[in-house]
Amino acid sequence: MKGNRVILSLVFLILGYMLAFSYHLTKSDTEGAKISDKQWERSYDLRSQLIELEEKNRTLQHELVEKQEKLSEIEKDLAKEEQVFYNLAEDAEKYRMFLGKVKVKGSGVEVTLADGDYDPTEENANNYIVHEHHVFKVINELYISGATAVAVNGQRLSYNSYIVCDGPVITIDGFQYPAPFVISAIGDPDVLFSALNLTGGVKDQLVNDNISFSLEKKSEIVFEPILGG
């Protein structure tokens, strides 16, 4: 009887141990499954956030490209406007120079017209003195050849200047000047020099009228602005 109890006790002990081990194993598997589920949910959330961020990034990139294209168009328009304003400013400066409102400095040429040598056989003295039409010929040729500013005996000319011959003197804008008449012009010296020296041109015409004509290039000519007006 005592031996049966011992055997029965061993059976219960082994059975208890098996039940305890089975419970512990089941609990471990359950907890492991729960951890795996949480990790999967976390990974899914992170992937979802990443996908959402990538979509936002693509959207922002498209917006950036569109804004860059608009900016490029604006820059092109501004460049065109800048060129227009530059041209207007350049034209305005040319008009101010033409009107004599600003000081100008540059290279150019200087023409000197003087009365011809006295000829006792010449009955009419007007045939060898400088007249306003002689001065006009030189001035017109200088402007046609690109002169930006012209002066006679230091008197700067403007768009409404007038020149009148009054005996042995010439009146320019109300100021009288005797011969010789020094005509200064700012512009390309080579072009102006060549234009006045053309065969059959201004120089030859004046020489044929017994006018003393001299021409030289100048590295620097300065004209002060015309006061008043």
UniProtKB/TrEMBL annotation:
Any Pfam family matching the protein: DUF881
Segment forming the signal sequence: none
Keyword presence, Ligase: no
InterPro entries xref list: DUF881 (IPR010273)
Coiled-coil region(s): 43-84
Protein keywords: Coiled coil
The family this protein is said to belong to: Belongs to the UPF0749 family.
This protein's name: DUF881 domain-containing protein
